[in-house]
Amino acid sequence: MIDIDWLNTFRVLSEYQHFRQASEALHMTQPNVSLQLKLLEQKVNTKLVERHPFRLTPAGERLLISAEKVIAELTACEQDIAAMLSMETGFLRLATSDTLARYVLMDTIKEFYRQHRQLDLHLHNATSSEVQDLVAEGKADIGVLSLGLDEAPKKHLHFQPVNRFSWQLVSNRNLGKTRLGLSAIGRFPLVLLDQRSRSRQVIDQHIDSPPQVMSVASIEAQLHWVSAGLGHAIVPNYVPVTEGLWATKITGLPQQSLGYVLRESQVPSPATKWFIGEFTK
Q1: Cβ distance 138 to 79 under 8 Å?
Q2: At a CB cut-off of 8 Å and minimum separation 6, what does 123 contact?
Q3: Which of 50, 112, 222, 241 could form a disulfide bond with 233, CB atoms 3.0-4.6 angstroms apart?
Q4: Which residues contact 10 (CB under 8 A, 6 or more apart)?
Q5: 109: burial class by Cβ within 10 Å (0-12, 13-18, 19+)?
Q6: Radius of gyration, CA atoms only, the chain
Q7: pLDDT, tens digit, for every residue of 19-78?
């Protein structure tokens, strides 16, 4: 059996590609890093690293794939077991977007703090894709995100839909219509979230070449620039429209599923179970 410490040393060395930097990251001496690599190479009976210049051998590249999976799974397992012990101490790690945290999860987060002041909440602001990666890698206990109605999550994850949302066009004047199709919206200058966001990816798939697009980092920025008369914003219909702005329903943009994601092998901690219960009320 390969020693897990040797695997972790090899993984970190592969990341830094430098013995001194790897030893500093591992809080080990450089000779100890070299020794653990030597013992690992003896165990698998082949060379894993070329030193000058640094590169992995084909065997090293293959071993690195398994090393990353094994270490990630063991890390997630340790965290699951620790989280299962009680809700007296510890933390909940939530991965979601800033938009969902503000407009969908605010009440749940406030209630979490009210009922569980002894627990820390670690909030990871991330895109839908990043949320899934954080949960899959065991860096988040639960992720809240949106997916297409027929869209599957990434491998080894379970997505539980909770609700659906559609889209609205926000303007600084009354357009005199209750609904607008995509062809009409495509003629407006638009203020949209940047291309990393889930919303922007959906919009770009369905609206071809609007006359002008301003890309911004948050829905708050979208609404600010709409108020200033620089365009119209497409936002989810769970976003409240402030005074002085008008919302028009959009037809043609597909509805999205809003829900949470867990690892398939995950045993939810008491804190995670509480959060799911509060979120899905």
Answers
A1: yes
A2: 94, 96, 101, 109
A3: 222
A4: 36, 37, 40, 48, 60, 63, 64, 67
A5: buried
A6: 24
A7: 999 998 888 899 999 999 999 999 999 999 998 899 999 999 999 999 998 988 888 777
